[in-house]
Design brief:
This protein is of the alpha/beta class and 187 residues long. It contains 6 helices and 6 strands.
Amino acid sequence: MQKIDGYRPPKKVYVNYLEDAISCFVFDTTLKKLIHFMKYNKFKSIGFRLGFLAGEEIRSNLSWLMSYDLLIPIPLNSVKKRERSYNQSELIANGISAVTGLPVNNKLLVRKKYTMSQTNLDLHERKINVEDAFKVEKEKHSIENKNIILVDDVITTGATLNFAAKELVESGAEKVIGFAVASPLML
């Protein structure tokens, strides 16, 4: 897997609630296949392993993230979670946590509406698809003044992470960083 240094998503046409967006690896053919197997063929161990590798990258080269308070995986809609039986972002977050010791909370943020896959959507369609898709469900006080790392599998435009971050910031989070295992290499 090809490493990349601090990928930043392209400029967005909407308000940005993320302090930053970072990924570790280029979303190349190999990683694309791995993530596809993890998500659609029930290879759950891939998620933890990718998270573990990302955690090692954080510990070695992105050590400033070690000062953050909490990892929150991007939640799946209940229908998708039932179909898949697991959340790939949660598996990745658990792998990161195993290396870094940062706690994972998968109860605070929920996806309140069904959203279609972002894979074939353009920037504007992605924005519409995930706008108002998230809410902070429980224990709002536990994120007040906290620095949070939102975890996802792939960052393309940052729309999913941005709208999830919006809910966290509006519920009192101090800073929210978007973090993914992979992103397309955009020059």
